[in-house]
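We now fix the convention by which a protein and its fold are recorded. Here is one such record, which you should read through line by line:

>
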Amino acid sequence: MDNNAKKLLVIDDDPRLRELLLRYLSEQGFDVDAYADASQLEKRLQRNRPHLLILDLMLPGEDGLSVCRRLRALGDTLPVIMLTARGDEVDRIVGLEMGADDYLPKPFNPRELLARINAILRRQPAVPALASAYIEDETYEFGDFRLEAGSRKLFRGDTEITLTHTEFSLLKVLAQHPRHPLSRERLMELARGKDYDSFDRAIDVQISRLRKLIEDNPGEPKLIQTVWGFGYVFVPDGAAR
């Protein structure tokens, strides 16, 4: 195995699917481990942290939603792709609300999972944060906030606010297009890439999460305003449109 290979961790209680993903993703050049449940997750993250977690929603013991919620509550931004067996839109939305970066309903084509994995990994810094700041050092300021593109960090004053990879990507795109209305499709394309297939509620859930982080009153947003029937517009000074 290439020492530079990206590390993936699969947690799914279906032994056939685990074996399929182990074989297929390894053939694609990834360093893959797979477990049937999340009981060893903390030790695995400390010992040999992966670049991305593929997490089944329905697991024995602690379920995938609880795992994802716990990681995010701890400030862990490890990218998570949630697998949902039932294909229920509600499950997918709840998974996104818990902090998953993406979701994929079962059954799925492994090539589609590969595309989702590559799309998320492309958004991660290719070099350590301090070094990347020299490559991409744009800083966006709005209200009390400062978004540093190089370090992929958001600050309110001197306090850092934890963002998932998806939240950072969306906020960066919005900050790069102030006062320019973006459709849902265009916003997700800029943030996630052309190979990302989304539905309207997915982007709405992610925007709702961002609003809870940066709006004084998420119910009456001033920074990320809704353009009814179209999409969203970022207003750095929070002025009415």
In short: The chain has nine helices and twelve strands. Confidence is low (pLDDT under 50) at residues 126-135. The longest strand covers residues 7-11.
